[in-house]
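As promised in the previous annual report, we have extended the structural survey to additional targets. Below is the entry for Peptidase S9 prolyl oligopeptidase catalytic domain-containing protein.
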Amino acid sequence: FGGPPFARVNADTNMTVGEEEGGAYKKYTPSAKAHLWKTPTLVIHGAKDFRLVESEGIATFTALQRQGVPSEFLYLPTENHHCLNPQNSMVWHDSVLQWMKRWTS
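The corresponding structure token record, generated without further manual editing, is:
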């Protein structure tokens, strides 16, 4: 999780921000607690999301799968961080509702 293309370098230490000992990035990054994930998780990622690169969604899903956590990955190749296309919005909502029904019933 994390790293290029979004890694920032601290000019004073020449280290990626968060690499410094006790850095907030390391303390709060989800990957630091990935070994504790147990909750069934639906990971949804849009290919045009400029906030998170595709590898972030794939890495999250892969970590869940490797730990045996019930999980699914919904990939929307024409969407960004928000689902704007009406047909894709229907797929998104249907997937979320089915997931919730499956795991809360």
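Helices lie at 24-28, 54-66, 86-104. The chain has a mean pLDDT of 83. These points will be discussed at the next consortium meeting with the crystallography subgroup.
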